[in-house]
Specification:
Blueprint: E1 11-15, H1 19-30, E2 35-39, E3 51-52, E4 60-61, E5 66-67, H2 74-81, E6 105-108, H3 117-135, H4 141-144, H5 148-155, H6 161-178, E7 203-204, H7 209-218, E8 226-227, E9 232-236, H8 239-242, E10 250-254, E11 259-262, E12 264-267, H9 271-281, E13 282-283, H10 288-296, E14 298-300, E15 302-308, E16 320-323, H11 332-338, E17 354-358, E18 361-370, H12 371-377, H13 382-397, E19 406-409, E20 422-424, H14 431-439, E21 452-454, H15 467-486
Parallel strand pairs: 1-2, 1-12, 2-8, 6-16, 9-13, 12-21
Antiparallel strand pairs: 3-4, 5-7, 9-10, 10-11, 14-20, 15-18, 15-19, 16-17, 17-18
Bound molecules: flavin-adenine dinucleotide (FAD).
Length: 487
């Protein structure tokens, strides 16, 4: 087959309209495929990219916020090419992290006093060097087999009480990057498989937010390509073998009873959804290596707590309020003691790292929380979460903090179409092998080809967790089909 000849006959269904699904569909359509349908469970496109305007006419990102890295990052290039990056330096806020800490980040203790800027700077700088070692694959032999938390405890030398508290905060922030409950559950050595494209790490988007980047891809899709409110229930992928269909080997059936026959299906649902539903979704069931990958890779929860105040109560030279605890959840002893039982639920709020002023919302703060504490928080009423956060802000800062007039709290862990936030590699898991097994198309090599293909951030060996990783996997699977049909 040459060029796009015959491609109009090929039926492809894409499950999910996050960056992976939309990138796959756009790539196929561009190559001349005329029969592409995207089935999306939600009533909106974008998946873990969710740009919204709940407080003012300015956008907020409930999911992904930044484009991470520049060089070789196709989403950065796309955003740049279409003039979608923010040019206003005041909006270019990064999350407060050990790598990016500045004098505008205020670190408070429980008694309302501040940790000195010098201690914060020193601890963050040493912490960053240690995590860089892990990410750059420069760990000493004895550290390679450890958890990330274990390695950091062993390598970090700190004698002052304040320094220890800031160190615990650094580990809590690192949990947000890893989307894990605790660094004592994450592999130290495997961190090096994750690659950050060069250039600034926190690239902020312009007024249209992440949705504007997605729109660039969506505009290439013919009307009707995406069907929302179409949750896929089952994927039967051996119909030709069973003799049930002469024409198409795959049948996709939705919860609403609609079914679609196709030559290929590209599954882009999150790893969380696969963990929840892979057992019942695929007929015949998935091969064992794929099931192992779904089980072994980690999929953690990161949530955002947006608090909107009628007036700003923090000084002009403050852009984030961080909280350090005498006994924080990432202290090794505290973590070990809380591994058993449910007592940690009583102090779920200790996992909140702090509150950052939100870009373009001068009176709004965003709190970050991860792991089992985030999942627990999701079960609470908004009002309880809001009051807890305001109480924390009052206790830690000692400032006159008014009540928050509006809130927006993400619940990614309990979202049945996502079931978490992003992927991590747990301790003692071979991330490379498992990402590859997750990405492998079905049936396995040697039998009928390419009925089911897999994309989505979790299927990328190096760029998992990110939007650009998701995008690249969508393009990868589309290219796989393009090559197959041009042979
Ligand atoms: C709080 C948070 C902050 C983040 N911050 C960043 C960031 O700053 N930068 C960054 O690069 N990344 C960030 N990420 C990660 C990034 O959002 C994801 O890696 C990326 O968006 C994943 O895209 P995807 O297409 O792989 O999956 P998804 O976006 O999850 O898309 C899968 C789609 O499948 C749909 N679906 C699920 N089940 C079914 C079904 N049965 N039938 C039909 N459709 C179904 C879902 O509704 C969803 O739309 C963040 C994520 C979260 C949650």
């Amino acid at each position: 087959m040459s060029d796009s000849e015959g491609l109009e006959e090929v039926k492809v269904v894409v499950v999910g309209s996050g960056f992976a699904g939309v990138a796959a569909a756009a790539t196929l359509v561009k190559a001349g495929f005329q029969n592409v349908l995207v089935l999306e469970a939600k009533d909106r496109v974008g998946g873990r990219v969710h740009t919204t305007k709940p407080f003012t006419d300015k956008v907020l990102e409930v999911g992904a916020n930044w484009i991470h890295g520049q060089k070789g990052n196709p989403l950065f290039q796309l955003a740049k090419q279409h003039n979608l990056l923010s040019k206003d330096p005041s909006t270019s806020k990064s999350m407060c992290s050990p790598h990016s800490v500045t004098s505008k980040d205020f670190f408070f203790k429980e008694d309302g006093t501040q940790v000195s800027k010098k201690v914060v700077e020193q601890v963050c700088s040493r912490f960053s060097k240690l995590t860089d070692k892990a990410f750059d694959d420069e760990l000493a032999r004895k550290h390679r087999k450890m958890t990330l938390g274990g390695y950091l405890d062993d390598a970090f030398e700190e004698s002052t009480e304040d320094g220890q508290m800031v160190f615990e905060w650094c580990k809590r922030i690192e949990c947000t990057d890893e989307a894990c409950s605790s660094l004592y559950e994450v592999s130290a050595a495997q961190s090096s498989e994750y690659i950050e494209p060069e250039g600034g790490f926190f690239n902020t988007l312009g007024l249209g937010g992440y949705r504007a980047v997605l729109d660039v891809l969506l505009k290439d899709l013919p009307t009707g390509t995406i069907q929302c409110n179409a949750e896929v229930k089952t994927i039967q992928w051996d119909l030709i073998k069973e003799g049930e269909s002469e024409e198409h080997p795959v049948r996709i059936t939705c919860q609403n009873g609609q079914s679609y026959d196709a030559d290929h299906v590209i599954v882009t649902v999150s790893l969380g959804v696969l963990k929840d539903k892979a057992d019942t979704m695929f007929k015949p069931s998935l091969p064992q290596p794929k099931l192992n990958a779904i089980k072994n890779l980690g999929f953690g929860t990161v949530d955002k707590i947006f608090l909107y105040f009628e007036e700003k109560f923090w000084p002009d030279d403050c852009s984030t309020i961080q909280m350090v605890w005498e006994e924080g959840p990432e202290d090794e002893d505290v973590y070990k003691a809380s591994s058993k039982g449910d007592d940690w639920k009583e102090t779920w709020y200790k996992k909140i790292t702090g509150f950052d002023v939100v870009a373009r919302h001068p009176t709004a703060l965003c709190g970050w929380i991860t792991g089992r504490e985030a999942l627990h928080m999701e079960t609470l009423e908004d009002s309880e979460i809001r009051e807890t956060c305001v109480r924390l802000l009052r206790t830690f800062t000692g400032w006159s903090v008014p009540g928050a007039s509006k809130t927006l709290i993400s619940r990614w862990g309990h979202d049945s179409h996502v079931r978490g936030s992003y992927t991590y590699v747990p301790h003692r898991v071979d991330g490379v092998e498992e990402h590859k097994a997750l990405a492998a198309p079905l049936p396995p090599k040697g039998s009928e080809p390419l009925q089911v293909l897999f994309a989505g951030e979790a299927t990328h060996v190096n760029f998992y967790t990110t939007t650009h990783g998701a995008y690249m996997t969508g393009v990868r699977e589309a290219q796989r089909l393009i090559s197959y049909h041009s042979d």
